Amino acid sequence: MLETALDAGVSPETLRKIESGRVATPAFPTVAAIAEVLGLSLDEVWAEINQPEPGTVRRGERERLAS
User: Fold this and answer.
1) Domain containing residue 11
2) Fewer CB within 10 Å: C terminus or N terminus of the chain?
3) List of residues 6+ apart from 15 with CB closer than 8 A
4) Mind listing the pLDDT tens digit for each residue in 26-61?
5) CATH code at 17?
């Protein structure tokens, strides 16, 4: 984690807070820098954070499933 944080230009504490959810909305440049260090595209990051939790129904799906 230390190497990832330093390579991304953020403090290890900031990265820990992001990982634990204590920073609910990290700045876009921070997310982009971490993604780059990890070899992830921003599309991959976006897809990962927009996966529904198991057992949840996305907006609009409830109506479609009910018909």
Assistant:
1) 2-66
2) C
3) 1, 4, 5, 8, 34
4) 999 999 999 999 999 999 999 988 887 777 666 666
5) 1.10.260.40
The two structure tokens encoding residue 63: 């109506």
What single DSSP character describes residue 65? H
- Rounded distance between C-alpha atoms, residue 37 and residue 65, angstroms: 40
Sign of CA dihedral 40, 42, 44, 46: positive
Q: What distance in Å separates the CA atoms of residue 10 and residue 17, rounded to the nearest whole number? A: 11
**Tokens standing for residue 18:** 């992001």
Q: Render 25-47 in DSSP notation, one character per residue.
A: S--HHHHHHHHHHHT--HHHHHH
